[in-house]
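Before the break, one more example. Copy the sequence into your notebook; we will annotate it together after we see the structure.
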Amino acid sequence: MPSPDSHTRPSRPRSPLAGPSTPSPPFPISLSGPVIKGFGRGSRELGIPTANIPLAGLSVGGHSELESGVYFGWAGLNVDDQGNSSSDDGGEGKQKSSSSVWPMVMSIGWNPFYKNTVRSVEVHILHAFARDFYGARMNLLICGFMRPEYDYVDKEALIEDIRTDIAVARRSLERDAYAGLRGDGYLVQFQGGEHEAEVAT
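Here is what the structure looks like once it is written out:
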């Protein structure tokens, strides 16, 4: 089944920034869910790991009709900068309490290059973690829309666009109105297992 939302990749140069100088409605958008295993292609084929959350998270947040495409914003995780969760032992029989907030690029859609038959939410966090953190809780603050989904003739073009997405997201989030959202308390307020069950597929 082809993606109903895919576009042909334009040949013109990309803008160095995404979104207006300050977020405008409906942004910022809050989205939350447990980190789950995705298709496994981000790290293996593209060298760009993703932390996926269940698609049901869009419905719980009231954003099931959010346009397919690439977005940028902030991701809060209940893990430290190595990927260790608050339930990991600190080495002395004591439980650690950890959380971190990082810039992110997020894809919502069908990924037409791979001809997915289901819509997915794939988040690339702009930080290199030492370990996987499946099951961790992730809060997203989506600050703006970057571009629609494109269909690609080859994997190299897809990777090139993802690298550009990352650079554009970093620059866009450096603007004062966007950088200030990193301190939003929502990003590090993690709900319990009831919420995870609510958004799980």
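The beta strands are 7-8, 29-34, 51-53, 69-77, 100-109, 120-125, 137-147, 150-151. The radius of gyration is 17 Å. Try to locate both features in your own notes.
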